[in-house]
């Protein structure tokens, strides 16, 4: 017995019934996935911090809610940075493309594709490879974030759990969402945002509502596990001052920021995938490309270290107003280019954190610039840093709700909800169909998973009475089986209802008759061979229901009987009749 089947049986026995009710069932699976996702987030965070501390930590400031766990007295001259980032890209490329090629890139697309097209299956080695490769890529200065890796790591655990428990494809897909939500909710200290992100990122214009409750449970548990390990003292990733809006007129500036964010999101997507096309055209081994991208990022990092790594420390400085307006204006574009160089070349890392950094720099540049021009209207320019983060990612990733919630949870800036909502909505609309996640589909209707659910099958529109044959050839129980064989030859039918005194009493088929030796067939009657446990259909059943009976019992025909008198035969339905009815309706609809 598989370990998953054993655990499943144990759970069911504990409950005292053959099946666990929905909420109880998904509470169990959600908690288990949350524990796995939280543990994965801890391991990934520690490994990333270890690599960063051992290489370029002097160029990576921390945000107010982050702490350096490992401390090494490492001092690397700036001119060495390209070699460090190139080496990180090379090591990551070798690991990924030799062991798990699906772990390359930002990871979230792979999770989305697994849900829509991959039956919720992620190879067991992917979480391990993704953890190591992403920690090396980001820790050595690659411009990428933790969202994609931890989403794929958590989703990998969810998929593995689905296979261990021998769950259905539908349940396995839900566990993939739970795992992604768990990882994100934990590592970003945003349990609500993580859960919403998991069900929202699959679509550009829809949500996977079916996974909402399980995703909530997994995200909360993972957040608890992660916070219990690192401590509850710091609640948010970023520390912010008191932020407020002093005038209703200031709302107009947030709306303008939303417009700018939408257009910048389009630029981001075009650069990201344009860079990937460039790398795809290079006639070099795949594992070498991340090293080239890393080297280019290192060159930029010599002059602008703001592009290196996750970059949350620079966002913190922007919130505190410690960056020059000109620097923020330049870093907006350099962060986008550096992220494309890192991830589009095949490096392993997410796009959420770089998006937050680029959006924060856009918001900081805009907010502090407007304060210089309109000092009486702009009260706290730091507010534009937060709004820029949410608005830009909302447009770039098509996740407006989770963008708003996650930025709010990561900063504690709940008083900025109105401008966050306004700017994010505008950016979402302005950016149109552009998305950094190419595997997204527009809605549930466009998902291969739900396409069958969203359409009314032809067989559900046609009833048995419309397809059955009323001219039924029958036999009596006293008929010799030799005559049945003659009827098969004359009529072409291989099965016959058995009727006595106008009542259906059995059914006999060619398979039943051929079991009797040739010389004995004249002496054996139908009554001796017929099947009396008859599977029947009613005239008011749909062909969908009838077909399920045919498939479930592996039979080729169904006697059709009256609901008022189940012994009264009124017709017969075969698979051929169903096929003809389906073809007829299809032609009529065309």
Can you describe this structure?
- This protein has 590 residues and is mainly α.
- Helix content is 58%, strand content 4%.
- It has three domains: 3-230, Clc chloride channel, CATH 1.10.3080.10; 250-446, Clc chloride channel, CATH 1.10.3080; 458-589, Roll (CBS-domain), CATH 3.10.580.10.
- It is built from 24 helices and four strands.
- The chain has a two-stranded antiparallel sheet with strand order 1-2.
The CATH architecture assignment of the largest domain turns out to be: Orthogonal Bundle
Tell me the CATH superfamily of the largest domain: Clc chloride channel
Globally, the shape reads elongated
Mean pLDDT across residues: 86
User: What would you call the structural class?
Assistant: mainly alpha
CATH class of the largest domain: Mainly Alpha
Features:
3 domains, CBS-domain, Clc chloride channel, 590 residues, two-stranded antiparallel ribbon, mainly alpha, single chain, two-stranded antiparallel sheet
Summarize the structure.
The chain has helices at residues 3-15, 22-54, 81-99, 108-116, 126-139, 147-164, 169-187, 191-200, 212-230, 250-280, 289-303, 312-319, 325-343, 352-373, 382-397, 400-411, 417-430, 451-454, 464-467, 481-491, 510-513, 526-529, 543-552, 575-589; strands spanning 495-500, 503-509, 557-561, 569-574.
